[in-house]
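Structure first, sequence second, as always.
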């Protein structure tokens, strides 16, 4: 049984390590572009497509809150790798609220100027 647990651990580590390396390689070589990561679309009747791209504060705050929560969770896992940590309800609510604000702003931007 111990052998199977060790084997599963190393298989998981190799899988996630390999995925991490592939994504990192694609980021470094330009296969995955981050140029418009924080930009959003808004309705623009003057544009040929009907939309234009602009900086999105909603995307920025959603990304920052998500990275903060993910970092907190990662630190908790590093602190106690034997079990999955319990997330504070306030942090889950903040993450959900952040994404709700982002989606609300996205809906507002898409419906504006109709």
């Amino acid at each position: 049984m111990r052998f199977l647990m060790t084997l599963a651990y190393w298989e998981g580590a190799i899988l996630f390590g390999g995925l991490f390396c592939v994504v990192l390689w694609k980021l470094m070589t330009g296969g995955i572009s981050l140029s418009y990561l924080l930009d959003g679309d808004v309705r623009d009747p003057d544009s040929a497509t009907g939309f234009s791209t602009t900086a999105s504060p909603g995307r920025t705050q959603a990304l920052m809150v998500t990275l903060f929560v993910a970092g907190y969770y990662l630190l908790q896992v590093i602190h106690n790798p034997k079990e999955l940590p319990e997330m504070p309800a306030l942090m889950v609510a903040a993450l959900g609220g952040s994404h709700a604000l982002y989606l609300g702003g996205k809906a507002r931007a898409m419906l504006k100027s109709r």
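Margin note: The beta strands are 39-43, 51-55.
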